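B., you asked whether I could sanity-check this one before it goes into the benchmark set. Here's the sequence:
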Amino acid sequence: QGQFVESGGGAVQPGGSLRLSCVASRFSLGYYVINWFRQAPGKEREGVACISEYDGRINYADDVKGRFTVSRDNAKNTVYLQMNSLKPEDTAVYYCAANTVKTTCPPSPLLSEYHYWGQGTPVTVSS
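And here's what the prediction gave me:
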């Protein structure tokens, strides 16, 4: 069974940066739409960024626009999330997953359409 393996999380001060990586294990990224999600303690999992290989579309949640950048390298079977100007409210466990239904980034991702979830990588932003 394929899954993503996330890495790159850690503790950082407000204003700092982190680069998360998400490697597809035992399956190929291909043309899957890939989303980064995050889940803060006591909150629901939410979409952060989306990238589609099929039509090149990239979407971001409003509260990360201008600070986060998503990219993918299909040759390395890897998706990245560059996070700059981090804020305490960015504290969460970050996951990536592949949409097995859509060929473009949906405006509101439905968790039921996503598969190959990994264990996530924790990000803590605190002074």
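One thing to flag: The two ends are 39 Å apart (CA to CA). Otherwise nothing jumped out at me.
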